[in-house]
Amino acid sequence: MAKTILVVDDSASLRQIVSIALKGAGYDVIEGCDGVDGLSKLDGTKVHLIISDVNMPNMDGLTMVQKIKEMPAYKFTPIIMLTTEAGADKKDIGKAAGVKAWMVKPFKPDQMLNAVSKLVMP
Amino acid sequence: MTVKHYICNHVDGAKILILFVVFFKKNLGLMKKIISKLSMSTFVWFPIVMGLIVSIILSVVHGFSIVVVALVLSTSFITAFKLEKDRKKLTVVAETIPSTSDVSLNQQNIQIEHFSNVITQVLEVSNRQIESSRSQTEEAITQMSLRFGNLIQRLNTALESAKLANAELPDGGETVLTNVFENSRIQLNGVMKSMDAALTSRQSSFEELQSLSNETDSLKTMAEGVQKIASQTNLLALNAAIEAARAGEVGRGFAVVADEVRSLSIQSGTTGKQITETISNFTAKVENTLSVSTKGMEKEEEIERNGSIKIKEVLDSLEVLTQGMAESSSILQEESLGIVAEINEILVSLQFQDRTSQILEHVYEALNELSVRLNEDKDRIESGEQSLIDSDEIMKKLEASYTTDEERQLHNGEEVTSASEDDELEFF
How far apart are alpha carbons B241 and A97 in whole angstroms? Predict the structure, then answer.
């Protein structure tokens, strides 16, 4: 059965590009347009990996990650941050929150798929 | 020397002085009016008073003539009036100063309001344009990425089928396409072989038939032999009958036997004739069949020859075709992979829209903030308060909103450096 990945980004085009890469590699994709929307998708559905942006309206990605880590069903779900932010301070917050990898946009599809295959839950 | 003596001695100066004092005292009201008209300040009286004192001293103490005293007095008055004139001028200037400063202040306020209005309007319009272009670009890029996604999917489908055709089989270096060709060749060769076998078996039947035809010749000879024996038997029976007739009564019985033998020889001759006829008919039929078979055989041989030539031609062209197909499918496969890689590169480039969109969003927010601040400040200045716009604060707020190193570098006027490969992905 195909593995499911939640992609959270406020940019529709970027969600699309990530989805294309993931679907091409045989993953199922669920999309969320900000932190609040992303959390609402974690409604019991089995999610094997989460890819999220940092800067988003309503709720930013790092706050969302902190909230996910409080959810028993999803606290072990690996999370990759995909963002334009390359600053060490934000990375440190992500690291402390339990993020597994930090990817700076623009990303290369192959590189992303490589990271996904390394981290995706069995 | 008494005062009176002095006065007497210097009567001219004193006289004038007394006259002046008396005149001044008498016309005190008038003088006051003149003074008020002239609106001379007390400061201006100083040279006049000093002139008077000097005149008194000169005329009374030193006994200078009236001319000198008048000269001193007139000089003091002229100085006083000059001073007064300057004072008035200065007063006029001083009075105009506050009024002109009020006017310029008002004008400045009007200008500030005007500029503020212009800037606010331009900001609002620019913001709408920025937002519109940002959302348009986003929509277009979303559509483009969707199309590219579809392209990749279709290419992958094409690739799969090309792979299927070009896939190597597990038991050797053959691909599916070459295998199809090999199978066709083997099957067609099988057909050719069975055709060959059929022809061979027909050939052997033909040979059998031919040998049968040869056998009929010996049958014919045998039938002729029978006929010959019958004819000789007939001759013998005839001789026996003659010999029996000559023997007379004794040979009567023998004559009957000779007669029977003769009739038998006639029957044998007839049978021999019939056998010969039958064999002739049979031979004719066999020969007919043989000639038909020969023709058929020749035809079949020709058909087989043509067939094998045709099959070879078909196989040759099939081989060329399958080889071509295998080659083109591998080219297609290669090209498709190349195109997929190109599209992946395009997908990377398309992500720059996300970066520029963020930058535009920050510019939009900054301009919006500036517009709001300008409006607030305008109201504040209009109600006589001081401007509170703090460029440092705005710049700091702007800097805090940045999400890329590129923006921060641009903000500080530094050279923009692109992120290195190592910075792109980091595992924690």
Answer: 146
> Of the given ranges (A37-46, B6-15, B162-171, B265-274), which has the lowest mean pLDDT?
B6-15
Cβ distance of A100 and B428 shorter than 8 Å: yes
User: CA-to-CA distance for B149 and A14, rounded, in angstroms?
Assistant: 12
Alpha-carbon span A84 to A55, nearest angstrom: 9
* Amino acid (1-letter code) at residue A20: I
Residues of A in contact with B156 (CB under 8 A): 24
pLDDT score recorded for residue A63: 94
Task: Give the orientation angle of helix A88-97 with respect to helix A61-68, to 10 degrees.
Answer: 20
Name the residue type at position A59.
M
How many CB pairs below 8 Å do chains A and B form together? Answer: 99
Q: For residue A52, what pLDDT is reported? A: 95
Per-residue pLDDT reduced to its tens digit, B28-55: 777 667 666 655 556 667 777 777 777 7
Interface check for B424 against chain A (CB to CB < 8 A): the answer is yes
User: Which tokens go with A96?
Assistant: 């402390």
Q: How far is CA B383 from CA B348, B379, B386, in A?
A: 54, 6, 9
Q: What is the mean pLDDT of residues B333-361?
A: 84
pLDDT-based confidence at B1, cuts 50/70/90?
very low
Q: Return the closest-CA partner of residue B206 out of B333, B291, B329.
A: B291
Residue-level pLDDT, tens digit, chain A, 122 residues: 789 999 999 988 899 889 988 988 889 999 999 999 999 999 888 999 999 999 898 999 999 999 999 999 998 999 999 998 888 888 899 999 999 999 988 888 888 999 999 998 87
Average pLDDT over residues B258-268: 90
Which 102-121 residues of chain A touch chain B by CB within 8 A? Answer: 102-111, 115, 118
Report the distance separating Cα B29 and Cα B339, nearest Å. 114
B100 touches chain A (CB under 8 A): no
DSSP letter, residue A57: S
The tally of CA atoms less than 13 A away on the side-chain side of residue B352 is 6
Q: Rounded distance, CA B79 to CA A27, Å?
A: 105
Answer whether A111 sits within 8 Å of B425, measured CB to CB.
yes
Please tell me if residue B348 touches chain A, with a CB cutoff of 8 Å: yes
Q: From CA A100, how far away is CA A51, in angstroms rounded?
A: 10
**CB contact residues (below 8 A), chain B span 370-409, against chain A:** 403-405
How far, in Å, are B10, B44, B77, B317 from residue B50 at the CA level?
A: 20, 11, 10, 139
Identify all chain A residues contacting B419, using CB atoms and an 8 Å cutoff: 86, 104
Cα–Cα separations (whole angstroms), residue B309 to B192, B196, B203, B301, B306:
10, 14, 21, 12, 5
For the ranges B40-44, B283-287, B375-379, which has the lowest average pLDDT? B40-44
Do the Cβ atoms of A52 and A81 come closer than 8 Å? yes
The pLDDT of B204-210, averaged and rounded, is: 86
Average pLDDT over chain B, rounded to an integer: 79
**Residue A104 near residue B423 (C-beta atoms within 8 A):** yes
Tokens representing residue B241 in the block: 């009958």
Chain A positions in Cβ-Cβ contact with residue B350 (cut-off 8 Å) = 13, 17
